[in-house]
Specification:
Elements lengths: L2 E5 L3 H12 L3 E5 L3 H9 L17 E3 L2 H5 L4 E4 L6 H11 L4 E5 L12 H8 L5 E8 L4 H4 L5 E6 L3 H11 L5 E6 L2 H23 L4 H21 L10 H11 L5 H10 L4 H6 L6 H16 L4 H11 L4 H9 L7
Parallel strand pairs: 1-2, 1-4, 2-3, 4-5, 5-6, 7-8
Antiparallel strand pairs: 6-7
Helix pairs in contact: 4-5, 8-9, 8-10, 8-11, 8-13, 9-10, 13-14, 14-15
The structure holds nicotinamide-adenine-dinucleotide (NAD).
Length: 333
């Protein structure tokens, strides 16, 4: 039995806490939302993010970070990546011992192109980090909270650590975890697929069908692989759970908020209008900005990502951008 501090009690933080509690670990969950933490402690529910769900009574909620970190062996971060740096800075101030960091958030920092593991090593003092593992793969909180069969990967540069976290989260009934030793591939796969999910939503909102979506997923994977490999990932990782697996689940499901936001844009809303109607984080927007700049810097061709960037940030009409994609020079597959 381990003690785990979960930072972020939204959809994914709550669903992962359910698994850890089912596995008989001590789960202390932290969020800055008082109402949410009161609800978790008093009603054992999370009506804001996961309506109709029940959380185990053994999960304890905190709004006091120091309390939430007390005695922890593992810290699991599950907050939107745009607040990750400031949250980690607070964690560092309130942490007085060494822990393993596990991250389940998906995104890249737009101006630095940093992955969450890199941000952790920048914000947390070296004597407080035993190591870092990314927990990522095809997984919707809405299904995990109902204990539906789900398979993900625990990725680290340190395979022993990945295997420790694999065992911590694995549940024989509904949550299978593979270990992986390609951290760059896992983190980039999980972040870049959200851009393709936005594109999948846009084409659905425009009324295109299965042919278009299949083409988008296939060609999307090609450009995800190009950037990831140039950044140091192993090519095969992009063909695993954290690459194609996560891409398929996100680009084909109504549960995906990136898909939902894209759908609204395809339906005629602009980015601000689409985001205003979402209660949950849409990571693909920031990741698109990051991937666009990163690909330009590394001289990697990513036509779909560039097209999504044009729609989101240059306010181009999706139909015009698609026309340009279709008219590019013909080439070998
Ligand atoms: N929801 C899923 O199914 C799912 C699956 C896999 C990965 N993820 C990733 O997990 C991350 C979180 O997603 P989510 O769906 O849980 O988001 P969410 O919007 O449901 O919840 C985010 C939570 O973070 C909290 N938060 C925000 N700022 C904070 C701060 N400064 N300090 C403490 N808490 C803060 C919010 O109050 C909220 O409870 C994202 O990167 C997402 O891509 C989500």
């Amino acid at each position: 039995m381990s003690t785990i501090s979960v930072i972020g009690a939204g959809s994914w933080g709550s669903a992962l806490s359910l698994i850890l509690a089912d596995n008989k670990h001590i789960v202390n969950i932290y969020d800055l939302d008082d109402n949410l933490i009161n609800e978790i402690n008093n009603n054992h529910t999370n009506g804001k993010y996961l309506p109709n769900s029940k959380l185990p009574h053994s999960i304890t909620g905190y709004t006091d970070l120091k309390q939430a970190l007390k005695g922890s062996e593992v810290i699991l971060t599950v907050v939107p990546t745009k607040v990750m740096r400031s949250v980690l800075c607070n964690v560092n101030t309130n942490l007085d011992h060494e822990v393993i960091f596990v991250n389940a958030s998906k995104g890249i920092e737009p101006d630095t192109f940093k992955r969450v593991s890199e941000i952790v090593y920048e914000e947390i003092e070296a004597n407080k980090i035993k190591g870092f593992v990314a927990l990522t793969g095809p997984s919707h909180a809405e299904e995990v909270i109902q204990r539906m069969l789900t398979v993900v990967s625990a990725a680290s540069d340190d395979l022993d650590l990945a295997q420790f976290i694999q065992k911590l989260f694995n549940n024989d009934e509904y949550f299978r975890v593979y270990a992986l030793n390609d951290l760059i591939g896992a983190e980039l796969g999980g972040s870049l697929k959200n851009i393709i999910a936005l594109a999948a939503g846009i084409i659905s909102g425009l009324g295109y069908g299965d042919n278009t979506r299949a083409a988008l997923i296939t060609r999307g994977l090609v450009e995800m692989r190009r950037l990831a490999v140039k950044a140091g990932a192993k090519e095969e990782t992009l063909f695993g759970l954290t690459g194609i697996g996560d891409l398929v689940v996100t680009a084909t499901s109504i549960h995906s908020r990136n898909f939902q936001a894209g759908y609204k844009i395809g339906n005629g809303k602009n980015l601000q209008e689409a985001l205003a109607s979402m209660t949950m984080v849409v990571e693909g927007v920031r990741s698109c900005e990051a991937a666009y700049k990163y690909a330009k810097e590394l001289d990697v061709d990513m036509p779909i990502t560039f097209a999504v960037y044009d729609v989101l940030f240059n306010k181009r009409e999706p139909r015009d951008v698609i026309k340009e994609l279709m008219c590019r020079t013909l080439k070998l597959e």
